[in-house]
Specification:
The chain is mainly β. The chain has four helices and 15 strands.
């Protein structure tokens, strides 16, 4: 089920009256195959901290009601980014899950600061329990990456949920959500990090030096290759996490 907006109106009954919520408050109901249903009350006249979020690309027709009030609302970055500008943030914000809204994003790993090492990336995320945003710029100046519902770690099995998605500014923005075909969201070991999979290819693959990468179409997201070339060289890489 896609997110839907429930407008609370004044209802008069024989045994009592339900009070009308303030105009700046709305109730959101969320349900999907990968999470329990829940209700959230948000303040819609605080566009700096809240944006409506769609759970699938085909629900874009439901988004304008929120985006009209928060078109210029952007995620707040607590650190400087060499890869993300306001244009990137504006497009990505509309695809972030509700639980990330209203929180600043903190830089936890950057090749410019920490060097190029997958081990260091894992080490910097040890103890985290928040979603992460992986952003890559390749040698052809193309920006792309993935939002992961869970921080990256070494794991014997795939992990993550259907909140995970891919994106590419190549040059136009494209987002690729979970297809539901398999659950190969994220897997990692000391030799490589993989996102998406099936039929012999990964949606995004990075080596232990975070230097060589590859991107193929895969069943998990039904995505196109994120870079202009299936095999690419990483110029810069950043990982951000929600700061709670």
């Amino acid at each position: 089920m896609q997110p839907s907006v429930l407008r609370v109106q004044k209802l008069t009954e024989k045994r009592g009256v339900m009070k009308l919520l303030p105009e700046n408050m709305k109730v959101l109901y969320f349900a999907s195959d990968c999470m329990e249903p829940y209700v959230e009350i948000i303040t819609v006249k605080d566009p700096k901290r809240r944006l409506s979020l769609s759970s699938s690309e085909d629900s874009e027709a439901e988004e304008p009601e929120y985006q009209e009030e928060g078109e210029d609302a952007l995620p707040v970055l607590s650190d400087h980014s060499q890869l993300l500008d306001d244009r990137h943030l504006e497009r990505l914000a509309a695809h972030m899950p509700p639980r990330t809204q209203g929180y600043p994003w903190q830089l936890v790993y950057s090749t410019a600061i920490h060097g190029s090492s997958l081990k260091t990336l894992y080490r910097n995320m040890a103890g985290l329990d928040s979603p992460v945003l992986l952003v890559i710029k390749d040698m052809h100046k193309k920006v792309f990456g993935a939002f992961s519902s869970h921080p990256f770690r070494v794991s014997k099995y795939c992990y993550g949920t259907g909140e995970t998605f891919l994106f590419s500014f190549n040059p136009d923005f494209q987002a690729y959500r979970w297809s539901g075909e398999n659950s190969y969201f994220v897997s990692g070991n000391l030799e490589s990090l993989q996102i998406g999979g099936g039929e012999g290819g990964f949606a995004l693959w990075l080596d232990a030096d975070l230097y060589h990468g590859a991107s193929f179409s895969c069943p998990t997201f039904h995505n196109a290759p994120l870079s202009t070339q299936q095999d690419f060289i990483v110029q810069d890489l950043e990982v951000w996490t929600v700061q709670k």
